[in-house]
Amino acid sequence: MAERSQTAPEAGNDMGNDDAIGGNVSKYIVLPAGYCGQPKKGDLIFDACFESGNLGRVEQVSEFEYDLFIRPDTCNPRFRVWFNFTVENVKESQVREIVDVFRVVLRVIFNIVNFSKTKSLYRDGMAPMVKSTSRPKWQRLPPKNVYYYRCPDHRKNYVMSFAFCFDREEDIYQFAYCYPYTYTRFQHYLDSLQKRNLDYFFREQLGQSQQRQLDLLTITSPENLREGAEQKVVFITGRVHPGETPSSFVCQGIIDFLVSQHPIARVLREHLVFKIAPMLNPDGVYLGNYRCSLMGFDLNRHWLDPSPWAHPTLHGVKQLIVQMYNDPKTSLEFYIDIHAHSTMMNGFMYGNIFEDEERFQRQAIFPKLLCQNAEDFSYSSTSFNRDAVKAGTGRRFLGGLLDHTSYCYTLEVSFYSYIIGGTTAAVPYTEEAYMKLGRNVARTFLDYYRLNPLVEKVAIPMPRLRKEKPPPSKHPFLRGPASNYPNGKGDKRRSVNHKDPSNPF
Ligand SMILES: [Zn+2]
Question: Dmax of the chain from CA atoms?
Fold first, then answer.
């Protein structure tokens, strides 16, 4: 990148200077060095004082180059990955003039200089997202305009630089690490679902974070909620890490499918109770943090002993799960926590390691079935571990707490792309592709519980189906479809279902 000018402020101790970043920039005008007058057109204005915004500092390197500093997570300077900011006051005429006269495109270069991670999908073609007033749909920048490298000017820190051409003077441009998904968007989404008055969708406030509410959804047929009914529960959580926005798109895909009139969704609601807490860290999401809560805690390391005042949302969810576990009428069968991954491609899962080989094998069944349903889900990237550093995660803690008939997973999805089997080309994820993964997760429960034959019956209006008990199994812990392929081999009938024309996937 360009030499730093003598007059530009000293970029200095990039990592060490993070403590100088107190909050987001607010309509920050970058004036030319030595100029003290009123800002002119072309003096860029940066802003991140909006929901989920993040930009801590701007330093001008030259007329067309800026160093940008991510604001660290609140109360935790270790995490600096998520960015989301606007740029306005672009001087379009200048750009056009140069294009016409010199036949070159004038580009502004932004350097994001204080990432806390070194490994990144930027090396593999990932690019920041951009939208503008006149083009309100998020797009990824062309990867050829993005560079990720160790920079000698920044203590050999990794820097991501991207070149951008501003082409409309009146537009406000917004740049982000990935598709934003804010707390307000989430609340509007839930409000719109509630307005539909569905008799199988219930929304309650499970708790309160420091500033915002923790929503809990229950999606099931009302019959499953009557007094004394036995329940098979699938518990799903998302956005414990607030910067992992793809988690919300996947979660919305699950919810949208489960509340739909699709025959598969109707069968799932008849047989299962879905408990979903889609946004476990609402304050972190609102603030534009990457990993932590308002108080600076990585909530996914505090499952062992969450405090009601320091980790209130986690405390609330854990209490509910323990209560369900202790209820003899409730069988908590699945726990899935949805995240996004900053260095891996595809969707994949993390599971637990158990001494009991059979339990270990049974745990592999759900990801194998999901792999058959979702082209972007990779079973080969799915792994099982018991690293000490992951001991405080929901997946590990609940895997230890719940009995051997429960399965606990972390579902990860790439911030960037997926590679379809047999090809090498990376397909960048869109918001829709993330939601589709969610729909496929929901649909996989049909295969797991082997409810497929019921779908066609439900498709034709007919008297209500009686709930059927799963056939007795040789192994008391193997239920539903799992009993027939404990080694994770796919059910042959799956392929028949795959061709079902009613299948929207
Ligand atoms: Zn995460």
Answer: 83
